[in-house]
């Protein structure tokens, strides 16, 4: 700005000087004589000024002619000038028109037209950062993967397009199922732009899919740090990663690593049931009984679960049913109104052959929360109290047709799992398994029959009578037909929670924690 002001001031000063000079000449009396080459010319002041103006104009014309001659020579020698710039602008305009039409064709799904326009834009424009991307995407739309790969690799040579090239190659490798190469490309893309959500998500998914729990933890922490993930969600996922790392370390024989990761997972999210169970087991193996008990109590207060009850029972495997029932009181007091607490207390009472106590512990669950497990417990209570067989069969019939109890279900694809895993085996989603009631299926009532002997004892091997009795029970809820009498040999309530067999998640959750 100062330079512009200086130029204006100089121009004004020159104009003022010329004006004063011309005025002085015009106002001065006399003539002006010019002598040159033996000749003398006398001029009036006004004539002298006119001659000066003509001389200045002629000099300006000569300068312009000289500039024209120089421009013509430059044009003839191929140097860039106004004429060449005109043709260049025309060529650029056509190139951008082709680029625009190619983008529109790409958006509308016309791959053939998009590729034609992309090639024309590449020929007319000197903009490889734009035309390479359009050519690559047009080639992909036409199914020409090799050509698209070539353009994406060319984009790696330019700093402005390197990230886009890596992402394009990453998408291709994911589509081809080459997860190993895709993981390497995702790591490069994440290193270039760690704040990009889709890149971080892709890298995290690939790392968890390859069981790279340490790498996934680093990516997860970066996502939380950059605000891409809420801190509470990040904390839970970090606990799940630590638990997965603990299981891997234990499988490899690294007991110290398993303990560190399991304890960290349990500390991050005390209500994460699998972490609490594993941490309690490792504490117990290290003769740290108090830490094991406290961890299970804390988890039970937040999320009562049959696996927690089974782990708590295993802390004292040789105790009597009465001793176990008394020891469990401290655990059940942490969440006494939860249905799992009531069912566990009922199972403990059955094990101690306290059938009225079992009925009292179960409360009104048969009316408010009727499930297979609740009805099976009622059948065991009735049998233990000496009820008629038709009453027991009525409860068993209800158990066969009742809603199934909670199990591990993927919230993403609704697949049922036998046990908890960090990744869904069906959809590969991370941390989507929830302990919840499965949806009802047409054959769900039949599959629950396998768990009934675990609660009420074994059925006698009367094939014809048993088949007919089950048919009656499924039809009218347990009519007492002499021909279809089912006799239950014994009630075996004293089931040891630590030895209770696991049942398939497709059949039912664990029959009892105790």
Describe the protein:
The chain is mainly alpha-helical. The chain has 24 helices and five strands. The strands form two sheets. It has a three-stranded antiparallel sheet, with no helix packed on it. It is elongated and about 155 Å long.
What amount of the residues lies in strands? under 5%
Total beta strands = 5
Strand order in space, largest sheet: 4-3-5
The separation of the N and C termini measures 89 Å
Largest sheet: 3 strands, antiparallel
Classify the secondary structure makeup into a structural class.
mainly alpha
- The chain-level mean pLDDT equals 82
Order of helices and strands: HEEHHHHHHHHHHHHHHHHHHHHEEEHHH
Residues in helices, as a percent range: 55-70%
Low-confidence stretches: 442-514
User: How would you describe the shape?
Assistant: elongated
Give the number of helices: 24
Radius of gyration computed on alpha carbons: 44 Å
Task: List the topology elements.
Blueprint (H helix, E strand, L loop, with lengths): L1 H26 L4 E5 L2 E5 L1 H32 L5 H27 L2 H14 L3 H14 L3 H11 L6 H15 L2 H14 L4 H13 L3 H13 L5 H21 L3 H14 L4 H13 L3 H14 L3 H9 L6 H12 L6 H13 L3 H8 L2 H4 L3 H13 L4 H13 L5 E4 L5 E2 L15 E4 L7 H4 L4 H5 L6 H14 L38
Antiparallel strand pairs: 1-2, 3-4, 3-5
Salient structural properties:
4% strand; disordered C terminus; two-stranded antiparallel ribbon; 514 residues; elongated; three-stranded antiparallel beta sheet; mainly alpha; 24 helices
Give the gist of this structure:
By secondary structure, this protein is mostly helical.
């Amino acid at each position: 700005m100062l330079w512009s002001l200086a130029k204006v001031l100089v121009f004004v000063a020159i104009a003022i000087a010329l004006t004063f000079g011309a005025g002085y000449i015009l106002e001065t009396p006399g003539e002006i004589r010019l002598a040159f080459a033996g000749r003398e010319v006398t001029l009036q002041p006004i004539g002298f000024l006119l001659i000066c103006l003509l001389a200045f104009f002629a000099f300006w014309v000569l300068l312009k002619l000289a500039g024209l001659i120089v421009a013509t020579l430059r044009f003839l020698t191929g140097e860039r000038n106004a004429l060449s710039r005109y043709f260049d602008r025309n060529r650029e305009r056509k190139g951008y028109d082709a680029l625009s039409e190619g983008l529109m064709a790409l958006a509308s799904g016309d791959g053939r037209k998009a590729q034609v326009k992309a090639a024309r834009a590449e020929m007319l424009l000197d903009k490889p950062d734009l035309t390479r991307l359009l050519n690559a995407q047009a080639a992909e739309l036409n199914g020409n993967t090799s050509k698209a790969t070539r353009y994406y690799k060319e984009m790696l040579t330019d700093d402005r397009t390197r990230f886009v090239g890596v992402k394009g190659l990453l998408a291709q490798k994911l589509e081809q199922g080459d997860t190993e190469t895709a993981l390497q490309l995702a790591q490069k893309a994440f290193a270039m732009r760690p704040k990009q959500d889709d890149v971080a998500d892709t890298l995290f998914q690939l790392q968890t899919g390859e069981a790279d729990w340490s790498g996934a933890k680093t990516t997860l922490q970066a996502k939380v740090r950059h605000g891409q993930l809420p801190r509470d969600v990040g904390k839970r996922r970090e606990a799940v990663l630590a638990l997965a790392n603990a299981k891997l370390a234990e499988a490899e024989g690294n007991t110290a690593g398993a303990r560190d990761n399991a304890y960290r997972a349990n500390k991050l999210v005390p209500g994460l049931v699998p972490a609490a169970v594993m941490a309690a087991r490792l504490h117990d193996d290290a003769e740290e009984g108090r830490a094991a008990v406290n961890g299970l109590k804390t988890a039970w207060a937040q999320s009562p679960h049959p696996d927690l009850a089974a782990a708590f029972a295993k802390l004292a495997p040789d105790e009597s049913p009465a001793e176990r029932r008394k020891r469990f009181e401290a655990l059940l007091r942490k969440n006494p109104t939860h249905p799992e607490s009531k069912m566990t207390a009922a199972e403990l009472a059955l094990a101690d052959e306290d059938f009225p106590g079992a009925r009292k512990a179960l409360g009104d669950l048969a009316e408010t929360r009727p499930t297979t497990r609740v009805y099976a417990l009622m059948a065991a209570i009735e049998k233990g109290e000496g009820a008629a067989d038709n009453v027991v069969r009525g409860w068993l019939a209800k158990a066969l047709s009742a809603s199934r109890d909670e199990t591990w279900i993927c919230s993403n694809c609704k697949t049922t799992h036998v046990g908890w895993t960090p990744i869904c085996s069906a959809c590969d989603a991370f941390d989507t398994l929830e302990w919840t009631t499965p949806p009802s299926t047409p054959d769900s009532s039949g599959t629950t029959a396998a768990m009934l002997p675990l609660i009420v004892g074994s059925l006698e091997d009367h094939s014809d009578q048993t088949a007919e009795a089950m048919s009656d029970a499924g039809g009218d809820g347990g009519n007492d037909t002499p021909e279809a009498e089912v006799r239950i040999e014994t009630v075996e309530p004293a089931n040891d929670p630590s030895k209770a067999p696991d049942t398939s998640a497709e059949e039912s959750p664990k029959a009892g924690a105790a």
